[in-house]
Amino acid sequence: MSHPLFPKRSKKRGFTLIELLIVIAIVLILIAIALPNFLEAQARSRVTKSQAEMRTLATAIEGLRSERGVLLIDFWDDHTTQANIRINTKFNKIGHWFPPCSIVHPDQRSMACVLYPLTSPVKYITEVPRDPFAPEPGQFRSGNTGHDEHVNLPGNQTYLYADRDSGINRGDGDWNQTTFPPVPIPGQLRPLKMDEFTLSGFGPAVEKNLDGNSVRLPYVYSPTNGSKSIGMIYYRSTTGFGSPNS
Predict the structure, then answer these.
(1) What is the DSSP string of 117-175?
(2) What is the pLDDT of residue 129?
(3) Residue 200: its H or E element
(4) Rounded CA separation 240/246 (Å)
(5) pLDDT of residue 213
(6) CB-based contact 226:204 (threshold 8 Å)
(7) What is the number of other CB atoms lying within 10 angstroms of the CB of residue 185?
């Protein structure tokens, strides 16, 4: 029996400082191991979403080509006579240079405007999708020319469409000369074939995939490198998702 003035001490005790530090260290180690895997899984999930949306867009574009006998008008074709005629006749002026298209880019139509004919009057797609890797408005401003400095505007949050259209005579445009060079370059994109189109997404390394002269760098995302891969996600109408020179 304990004395009332000197009660027995409880056998229960709290953690010591050293024990708490050990537990915290173990938790931090587990976080350090798990976090990269979690971020990698997130990146791969968004890559899968991008590829699925690009396939849907490609199917819609092929549907439009099958029914109307033409491709979309990419913004490198904007100021050609054939582009104006096609947008006014084949596309019922959908995606033309007047609002809302003219206000989202000071020089040319936005990427979304290029894709608008897929939504009306025939709904090949219900709406123009947003690239899950697209930069948030005001996130960063890359480059001084082309669409680079406007990628964070709402109309440029989607996938980029480009083609080599036999029905439009624009000469050697920027797209064929820079992003798709006249001759294959190892590790880069091969030239577009006649009447071939391509779609590209920003990819996981979006901040590294923009330079001062073009919207997309001519390198292809590699799933083997996951979120560390520098390169856009490319889809070709002739080969789908493949190697740079496929």
Answers:
(1) GGTSSS-SSSSPPPPTTPPPTTS----SSTTGGGTTSGGGSS-EEEE--TT----S-HI
(2) 94
(3) strand 197-201
(4) 9
(5) 45
(6) yes
(7) 13
> What confidence score (pLDDT) does residue 104 get?
57
Q: Do the domain assignments include residue 3?
A: no
CA pair distance 113, 159, nearest whole angstrom: 11
**Structural domain of residue 88, as residue ranges?**
17-236
Predicted structure pTM score: 0.77
In a domain, 241, yes or no: no
C-beta of residue 205 within 8 angstroms of C-beta of residue 217 = no
Residue 222 lies in a domain: yes
The count of domains in the chain is: 1
Q: How many CB atoms lie within 10 A of CB 70?
A: 17
What is the pLDDT, as a whole number, of residue 11? Answer: 60
- Cβ neighbours, 10 Å, residue 14: 7
* pLDDT means over runs of 10, the chain (246 residues): 58 74 87 77 86 96 95 84 88 79 65 91 93 74 47 77 83 50 56 86 73 56 72 87 64
Token pair of 158, please?
Answer: 């989607």
DSSP annotation of 177 reads I
Residue type, 23: V
- Amino acid in position 66: S
Dmax of the chain from CA atoms? 105
Q: Where are the alpha helices (DSSP H) in the chain?
A: 17-68, 81-89, 111-115, 174
Distance of CA 79 to the CA centre of its chain: 25
